[in-house]
Amino acid sequence: MSDTKYKATIGLEIHAEMATVTKMFCNCVNNPDEEKPNVNICPVCMGHPGTLPVLNKQAIKNVLKMGVALGSKIADFTEWDRKNYFYPDIPKGYQISQYKYPLITGGKLNGINITRIHLEEDTAKSYHDRGDFSLVDFNRAGVPLMELVTEPELHTGKDTADFARELQLLLQYLGVGEANMEKGEMRIEANISVSDTDKFGTKVEVKNLNSFKSVEKAVNYEIERHIEVIEGGGKIVQETRGWDEDKQSTYSQRLKEDSHDYRYFPDPDLPKMKISEIPEFAIEVLKKELPELPWAKRTRYEKDYGIKEADVEIYVRPGIISTFFEKVCVDFGGDKNLIKLASNYIISDLLGLMKVVNGENLGQLTDKGFAELIKMVAESKISSRGAKDILKMMFEKGGSPMEIAEKEGLLQKSDESELIKIAEKIIADNAKTVADYKGGKEAALMALVGQGMKATKGSGNPQILKEIFLKLLAK
Ligand code: ADP
Ligand code: ZN
Ligand code: MG
Fold first, then answer.
1. Ligand nearest to the CA of 25
2. % of the chain at pLDDT higher than 70
3. Cα–Cα distance measured from residue 359 to residue 283, given in angstroms and rounded to the nearest whole number
4. Ligand 1 pocket residues where CB is under 6 Å
5. Are strands 249-255 and 265-266 parallel, antiparallel or unpaired?
6. CA–CA separation, 50 vs 380, rounded Å?
7. Interhelix angle for 320-331 vs 367-378, to 10°?
8. How far is the CA of 191 from the centre of ligand 1 (A)?
9. Contact 462, 453 (CB under 8 A)
10. 455 pLDDT tier (thresholds 50, 70, 90)
11. Mean pLDDT on 251-271
């Protein structure tokens, strides 16, 4: 923000499609990847008269799980409401949603209070970019859609994007939704206001945000715009704005005056529910079904294993590398030192090797082979330089690290008696360096170790060589 006397406030409304087997109120397949239009449809989700909706238990359970994970209050009672409006993507003339009795209220994510989470049905998808006509694809109509509303407690573009990222992570951990923003599986509306008093300023809502980066940029853009308008003596009008990715700016879409009165009323076709009386929706039951949550995983990696925060963020995102790392943790039985060492090689070497194959696979590397390699480093059987070379070979061609080390002559000589003989000869041949060391020149010791490495063609363990020299020279 260019001027610190202004305080920006942001509240979010986030829609996320649920990854259920079927749609919210019918038996049609819920497949966001279906490319052929209008194949996953039936009279119910097409809004034909005389059809009746049936509730999807999995979708409700998904939202309840979100609530349990966020420490929210699970509704005791809930009902479904009709949100009335006309648009070609909503053929019934109303959307089934929840108004007065959302499934979830309260709870926190990233320190931000959640107002509510409710469940509704997604609309069909309109295409206005195909010519002098519009097309509607009903595959998406009736897909279970969760809406989460936050309290106005965010203050920067970065915090807003981070909140959205954390929500995506939670949805993915719970297996509730993929929440891919580019695919529209998660849609964010950011309400932004700016004020220089302790009252809120007029809020503007920004839509069309299809990446975390654009969330951050649009929020920051709006904050700057509000400040400029206020500074210029103007007034912010309450409106909905869109984010133009090409122009990197927001533009007005509609003013608050043309906002609808949706005339919500309870849908008579659907049963009212007493959640507390449904055994499988009991909090204790839902709790047992929760996996390890992102924040618990962070604590385990950071506090228990001592992994750096930035590296933890890599492992906490679902993907090839996090699955691999978790397997390595299991292979090491939770041994902190080995896991930390393994993480260093993953971050500084393995990720680089993966980049060559677009980060899409681990080549020929297995977690067991990798764990064996790390153990060899920990036991000083190979040098760290040798480990890097072996890792590359394992990635490209596979194989056991021990066999590769033997074949490539990378096993470090740790056999003391042999190293002692070599060290004795070096001491005899380098009288000046020895004198330097005895005269107080510490660096001379490392020069002798260097000689030892050379004499063993790099296979001498430098740590052990150093100890041998120290012992021999102390005599
Ligand atoms: P409306 O009645 O216009 O729908 P709500 O009070 O229901 O407004 O809030 C909708 C969203 O706007 C919520 O995410 C909320 O946090 C956010 N919001 C409300 N007031 C402000 C404000 N002054 N500045 C930023 N966001 C706000
Ligand atoms: Zn259907
Ligand atoms: Mg509202």
1. 2
2. 99
3. 39
4. 9-13, 149-152, 191-193, 200, 203
5. unpaired
6. 76
7. 50
8. 6
9. yes
10. confident
11. 89
Whether the Cβ atoms of residue 246 and residue 71 lie closer than 8 Å to each other: no
Output the six-digit token pair for 172: 């993915």
Res 2 pLDDT > 90: no
Tell me, in angstroms, the distance from the centre of ligand 3 to residue 49's CA. 30
> Cα separation of 473 and 464, whole Å?
14
- Ligand (nearest to CA of 8): 1
The pLDDT of 96-119, averaged and rounded, is 98
Half-sphere exposure of 171 (CA within 13 A, CB side): 27
The residue among 78 and 260 whose pLDDT is bigger is 78
- In whole angstroms, what is the distance from residue 71 CA to residue 252 CA? 37
The residue written with tokens 């899409």 in the block is 360
Q: Of the given ranges (119-123, 294-298, 355-359), which has the lowest mean pLDDT?
A: 355-359
> Which string of b and e fits 152-171 if b means at least 16 CB within 10 Å?
bbbeebebbbbbbbbbbbbb
DSSP letters spanning 276-293: GG-GGG-HHHHHHH----
Backbone angles phi, psi at 219, to 5 degrees: -65, -45
Cα(419) to ligand 3 centroid in Å equals 77
Q: How confident is the model at residue 1 (pLDDT cuts 50, 70, 90)?
A: very low
